[in-house]
C-alpha cells in the first residue's frame, strides 16, 4: 500500500478535519493510515480519517459525562460510555424465526463429498513436467478403470500428497476446504472415478468421488442461537451508526461525513 511520507508534509500542516474544537491535519491522518490497510491509498486515508473522527466524537461525549478517558484507560472509558448510552433492541423469538424462514439457505448443512486422489506434482510454469504427468495420469486412469481396487496402491506409489499414506483419502470435504480450482470441480463431479485428470496449481489430480451428501436444511432449534447472535450484532451495528450520526450532528464535524461512502474520499475545507 502506498504510504504518505511525513517528511513531505509542511511543518505546520493546515487542518483537514474539525471535530468540535479539535483539529486533525493531513499529518494526523498520515500517522493513522498504516493501521487501516485497504486496496488504495485514498481508501486507507478515508478509513483513517473516519477512525479519528469516531474516536474523537466518543472521547468528547465521554468527557461531557465525566467519563473522560486517560491514556491508561481510554478503551475502558469508551466501553463504559457505549454500555451506558447505546440502546440495542434485543431480537425476540418471532424476529429470529422470521429471519430464519427468510434465509433458510444460510442455515443448512453444507454439501460434502468423500474424495480420494492421486497428486502428480508439476508447477504451473513447468510445461515439461505438466505434460509428462498429464500422460502419467491418463495411464493411471486407464489402469484404474480396469482395476479400481488398486487405487490405494497407486496413491502410495505415485502421489505427492501426504494423503498417500491413507491410500489417497482426503475424507469428507465441504466447499472451500481445498485449493480453489480443485474445489470448484469436486462439487460438480458425478460419483466414481472421474474420467480425466484435474488440474490445479500443484499439478494433476486423479480423483475418485466415493460418496456425496447434498446440502440439508437445519431445524430452527439447532440454529436459534446463531440467528439470535446475528440479529443482535446487526442491531448493535445499526444502533452504533445512529448514535455516531447523532453525535456528529450535535458536536459538529467538518471535512468528512460519517455517511460518506469510501470512494467519496476525504473532503477538504
Give a summary of the structure in a few sentences.
It is an enzyme of class 5 (isomerase). Keywords: Isomerase, Rotamase. This protein is α+β, with helices and mostly antiparallel strands.
Outline the structure in words.
The protein has 269 residues and is an alpha+beta fold. The protein has two domains: 125 residues, no CATH class; 109 residues, Roll (Chitinase A, domain 3). It has eight helices and ten strands. Strands 4, 5, 6, 7 and 8 form a five-stranded antiparallel sheet that branches. A hairpin with a 2-residue loop joins strand 7 and strand 8. Helix 2 packs across helix 3. The radius of gyration is 28 Å and the shape is elongated. It starts with 14 loop residues before the first strand and ends in a 15-residue tail after the last strand. The relative contact order is 0.16. Keywords: Isomerase, Rotamase. This is peptidylprolyl isomerase. Belongs to the PpiC/parvulin rotamase family.
List the defining traits of the structure above.
2 domains, elongated, three-stranded antiparallel β-sheet, 269 residues, five-stranded antiparallel β-sheet, disordered C terminus, disordered N terminus, 10 strands, 8 helices, Chitinase A, domain 3, alpha+beta
Amino acid at each position: 500500500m502506498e504510504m504518505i511520507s511525513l517528511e513531505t508534509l509542511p511543518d505546520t500542516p493546515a487542518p483537514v478535519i474539525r471535530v468540535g474544537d479539535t483539529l486533525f491535519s493531513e499529518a494526523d491522518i498520515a500517522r493513522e493510515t498504516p493501521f487501516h490497510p485497504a486496496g488504495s491509498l485514498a481508501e486507507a486515508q478515508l478509513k483513517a480519517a473516519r477512525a479519528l473522527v469516531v474516536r474523537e466524537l466518543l472521547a468528547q461525549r465521554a468527557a461531557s459525562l465525566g467519563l473522560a478517558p486517560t491514556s491508561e484507560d481510554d478503551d475502558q472509558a469508551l466501553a463504559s460510555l457505549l454500555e451506558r448510552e447505546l440502546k440495542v433492541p434485543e431480537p425476540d423469538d418471532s424476529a429470529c424465526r422470521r429471519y430464519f424462514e427468510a434465509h433458510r439457505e444460510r442455515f443448512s448443512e453444507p454439501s460434502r463429498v468423500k474424495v480420494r486422489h492421486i497428486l502428480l506434482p508439476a508447477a504451473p510454469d513447468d510445461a515439461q513436467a505438466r505434460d509428462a504427468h498429464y500422460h502419467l495420469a491418463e495411464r493411471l486412469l486407464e489402469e484404474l478403470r480396469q482395476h479400481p481396487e488398486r487405487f490405494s496402491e497407486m496413491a502410495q506409489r505415485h502421489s505427492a500428497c501426504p494423503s498417500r499414506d491413507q491410500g489417497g483419502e482426503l475424507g469428507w470435504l465441504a466447499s472451500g476446504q481445498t485449493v480453489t480450482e480443485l474445489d470448484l470441480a469436486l462439487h460438480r463431479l458425478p460419483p466414481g472415478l472421474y474420467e480425466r485428470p484435474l488440474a490445479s496449481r500443484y499439478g494433476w489430480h486423479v480423483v475418485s468421488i466415493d460418496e456425496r451428501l447434498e446440502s440439508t436444511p437445519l431445524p430452527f432449534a439447532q440454529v436459534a442461537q446463531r440467528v439470535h447472535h446475528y440479529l443482535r450484532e446487526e442491531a448493535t451495528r445499526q444502533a452504533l451508526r445512529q448514535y455516531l450520526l447523532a453525535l456528529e450532528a450535535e458536536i459538529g464535524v467538518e471535512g468528512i461525513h460519517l455517511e460518506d461512502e469510501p470512494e467519496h474520499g476525504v473532503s477538504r475545507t
